[in-house]
Amino acid sequence: MRRKRALPLAALLLCAPALGAMTPAAASPMSATSGTSGPLRILLTDDDGYDAPGIRTMSDRLTAAGYDVTIVAPLTNQSGAGTKLLSASTVTVKHPEPRVWAVDGTPGDSVSFGLSEVFAGRAPDLVVSGTNFGPNVAGLATHSGTVGGAIAALEQGVPAIAVSTGGLSAPEYRPTVNAMKPTCDFTVKLIERLRDRAKAGRLLPEGVGLNINHPVIGTDGTGTAEDSALTTQARQQILKADYTDNGDGTWKVNVNLVQQPVQRGSDVEALGQDKVSITPITPDWNTGPADFARAAALLTGLRP
């Protein structure tokens, strides 16, 4: 992430922690004071599939808040697909119900098809990817199909937000599904904040998106997060695979949680404190100026 881009967003989200204390958005049309006239047109995608609990809960919440929502999402579960795009010459697309398109591909493919065909001639105001079942922080975010869907939108100049629900332990089904409701309510509040600050302009700075991670609060997942925090993506591995040779050409895979010191100001720290993490993201892998300078020093004088 290029840190120099975080400052304009920090200004845009002035007093971001106050989001946690705001009154939930009412199920009514957008107010006349919002930055863009009329209901926002939102392309909604995910990596769990077009009919997964997270995307359906998000669709219900955004629609109830007065947004114009169209689902364009993978036909099947594409968790961990990252930013992958299919290279096949054809793609199967189903239209199982009004305002729902199911693409037999990755989240990136879904966003690509949605922007090219479903929203042909007029891009949506926003792409929302999620909410995902489980967190997408630190190294998980790098390989996340949920984040990949948002990146695909940012690459085409469309503002995008990735949203995930889960803590730092193995997600339990029912509490995580229950926590998707406060996750989506928070997302509605966040979008309304961006809309109010946009003043008829872009919802987010050019080339900047958001990666939202909402914790699971309470044993049943229905609790409210402690606060929200503007964070960076932790530079650490969350999961590590161990391999055991079965002796027949196959290997058994066990995935374990990696215990590491928590980086201050990171998405991992916020989630561990029962806060909603809001991490600015960009659609490229450029380093910040300091890291770029360090690499340049290492490579000075290198010739073919």
From TrEMBL:
Gene3D superfamilies hit by this protein: Survival protein SurE-like phosphatase/nucleotidase
Q: Which family does it belong to?
A: Belongs to the SurE nucleotidase family.
Sorted keywords for this record are: Hydrolase, Metal-binding, Signal
Q: What range(s) does the Survival protein SurE-like phosphatase/nucleotidase domain occupy?
A: 42-236
Catalysed transformations (reactions): a ribonucleoside 5'-phosphate + H2O = a ribonucleoside + phosphate
Q: What is this protein called?
A: 5'-nucleotidase
Checking Pfam families in the record gives: SurE (PF01975)
Q: Which InterPro entries match?
A: SurE, SurE-like_Pase/nucleotidase, SurE-like_sf
Q: Where is the signal peptide?
A: 1-27
Superkingdom of the source?
Bacteria
> Which Enzyme Commission number(s) are on file for it?
3.1.3.5
- EC category: hydrolase
What Gene Ontology molecular-function terms does this entry list?
A: 5'-nucleotidase activity; metal ion binding
